[in-house]
Known about the structure:
By secondary structure, the chain is α/β, with parallel strands linked by helices. The protein has helices at residues 25-46, 61-75, 86-94, 152-163, 198-206; strands at residues 2-3, 6-11, 51-55, 79-83, 98-99, 107-108, 110-118, 124-126, 130-131, 143-147, 166-169, 186-191, 211-214, 216-217, 221-227, 233-236. β4 (79-83), α3 (86-94) and β5 (98-99) form a beta-alpha-beta unit.
Amino acid sequence: MRLQRWVSFSKRAAGSLSHVRPFTQSAANMAEEAKKLAAYAAVDNHVQNNQVVGVGSGSTIVYAVDRLAERVRQEKLNIVCVPTSFQARQLILQHGLTLSDLDRHPELDVAIDGADEVDADLTLIKGGGKDSKALGQQWKKGVPIEVIPMAYVPVSRTIAKRFGGEASLRMAVSKAGPVVTDNSNFLLDWKFERAENWKEVNTAIKMIPGVVETGLFVGMAERAYFGMEDGSVQVRDPPVN
């Protein structure tokens, strides 16, 4: 797959490390609105006519697809959507957008997705929404690592031995047993102990037999959008070397 641009959006949590207040219904509504604002900004600023758009997964991507569908209807845009997950595929179909895949469209013009945490270098942990100077400062659930089922034990031991911390099998909540990915694999959540050279670590983990993919996105994001609880949207670009 060839990717021209990767755009991430994120929600900064209500409160901060120095000032935490009770999470009321009003705060919950503001947090949800922040996610919507970040998603809308990403779609408005990066999606253009005649593009192939990668559509990510997670709670915030729902708003991104809403906005994408709205723009397609209003502006008569010719957009082809390539999903990263079953959830994304269903959202694309529900909104009547043009669905494709990497076989037919191996080159994406832009990909839009959410992130669990974004550091100062725009290195991402995939999923849902923290802004930090270094990975691990606020997001405490670890780096997700997809592994083939028969390899999860040796992979978890190898990661702990080589990089420290703990890599635990992610267990399901609404059913017995582990979480199973769209590709019928397992997920490890690696809770690392310290900041790393993420490019080197990510490459090394991917080389471990049995690892399918990691939730680290290094040197891929062009821009990150943060939906703030005051209703504004902050933008972060990668540092200029």
